[in-house]
Amino acid sequence: MQSENNYQNSVSTDVDVKNAKVLSPKRNTTKAETTEGLVEEQLSHFGIDASSEYGKALANTAHHLYGAHASVMQLWDITSNTLQGLDKEDRVAYFNAKKFLSFQIAKILDTLQNPFRATYQSLSSGSGSQGHYPLFDNVTALFSATPVVVRTATYVYACTEWVDDAFHGKEFTHQIYSRLLNPTNISLANAIVDMEAGPYAADYLAWNFNSGMAAIDACLSNVLSHGDVLIVSRNVYGGVYQLLHDYFARQNRMDIQIAWFDGYDTQSFAKFMQQTKAEYADRLDNGANMHVYLESPCNPHGYVLDVPGICELAHAQNALVMLDSTLATPVLHQPLQHKNKAARPDYVIHSYTKDLCGSGATTAGVVIGEGHRMFQPKGSSVNGVDWSETMFWDVYYIKGAFLDSEKAFDVLNGMKTLEQRMMTKVINTQVFTSFLNAHNQIRVNCHAMPEHENAGLREKQHTHGWPCTLFTVDMAPANLPRDVFVRFFDALEPAFSHQVSIGQNNTIVLCPALTSHSELSSDEQKKAGIELTTMRIAMGTDNVKQLIAHFMLAAKHFIEPHAPGFCEKFMANADIDALYVSVSERVCSQHFSSKASMDSLMKGA
């Protein structure tokens, strides 16, 4: 008992009481200046007699918890200050020590389960009408090897002051409503930030939405004010065009002035930005802001823009940059990992629906941005951004386009195989486009071709210079009658799936003019390089040689009778076999040889 008293006295003396107050049910109104005072307040708050056996045991436990919390905060400070200087051996040791500490804390909570249930059952009238109380049953979920699917609309709150803090955004672990925060959703948000921002992940936050379009709408709604000027890259997804044209640009809505940028490189953007400033000087002089929305690689052609260069130019003009990086995925391009912060977009958007999930079974989206732009507790202001202007309070909190736990789990599972799937899709893209490009009556619009006008930016910006796995093809040089083309296109099933989405495991083909970009007028379609017979192809992980064989057989059956000699211009079978092996070896070598060396894994920081 004497040693216990000594422990308690040392805690009272050494504990940072400010940190300890976080655990108090009177965290915001406490007058206590010592741990003992916090314990006394806690027992009084719940009406527990401190002199009773129960009171003594509870007080002793509370002392340990307050002390443990102070020690954990000390561990966090030490870790923050020393982590970069540790060698790999120490990092492994630190990680496993803290992992076991989590198990110990969970074990303490689990030990509470039976007496907690017994106390709860003693309150029942015996009819069972009180129902089940699952709070401590959930503790063992900590040991789950995969993210837990938390299927609940609301949460039990600890006490009045804790839930008050939660409503003010000051208590992240005390979730109040799944429309705002859900553990599975947060797990996914953390995962995409780690993947996209890498070494700068600590500076970024993400909010997940029920679809890619919901994410885009949230980002635009948060950034834009009435009457602003928005520079938009020409080739954007048709749904984005419709959202901008039919909502944001309407005078009776947001009255946003859209300026369509047709180029891809920095020089073209610099010229266009100056033209835009001059053309809409009246708006800008009257308080409107100018911002930038990019899609790179873009839909439907897969072209890339010089994102770092454009970001630097935009930021020099105090314009925020929003980037839809769905088609890049973090495998092809990591725009938030640029060493020069000015070269990074302010927001990165993904449609999880596509490659990140990969199954085609879930619709979801995400916006990633710097922490101070995404969330602040009420009453805060950081870097000139008020808490009320952050995406959480300004949009996410009130619009309700959140991502539910089941979908978040689907995306998390899909992300595990993203790198391997993208490598296979890159191989298939390079093989299939090379096969098509060898035919002089097929026009391939893909920057995988070395001679393509966008190939230089692809080489400069994408990892290993790998191409976007979305591209377009047309057969205009063959002068096929519409009926012949349509019957050929319809015959591409089942090898090529006739679906409207992209990013799945199967290869998908569609005519953008009739589907994904049908919202655009004929004139806007032509400006976007979309003809009536343009085929958009989204490569999957299928056997690309089977795809090629089906393509040639369909052409032989439907095109050859109307264009004799068409099929003779296809690449020879043996050459296709050799092409497949050559491309596969090159891409695999690029991927595997780029992995960290054993020396760096054993010794590197």
UniProtKB/TrEMBL annotation:
GO terms for biological process: transsulfuration. Pfam families: Cys_Met_Meta_PP. The keyword Plastid does not apply. GO terms for cellular component: cytoplasm. Keywords: Pyridoxal phosphate. One of its GO terms (molecular function) is pyridoxal phosphate binding. Its cofactor is pyridoxal 5'-phosphate. InterPro entries: Cys/Met-Metab_PyrdxlP-dep_enz, PyrdxlP-dep_Trfase, PyrdxlP-dep_Trfase_major, PyrdxlP-dep_Trfase_small. Gene3D superfamilies: Aspartate Aminotransferase, domain 1, Type I PLP-dependent aspartate aminotransferase-like (Major domain). Coiled coil: none annotated. PANTHER family: CYSTATHIONINE GAMMA-LYASE (PTHR11808:SF80), TRANS-SULFURATION ENZYME FAMILY MEMBER (PTHR11808). This is Cys/Met metabolism pyridoxal-phosphate-dependent enzyme. It comes from Alteromonas mediterranea (strain DSM 17117 / CIP 110805 / LMG 28347 / Deep ecotype).
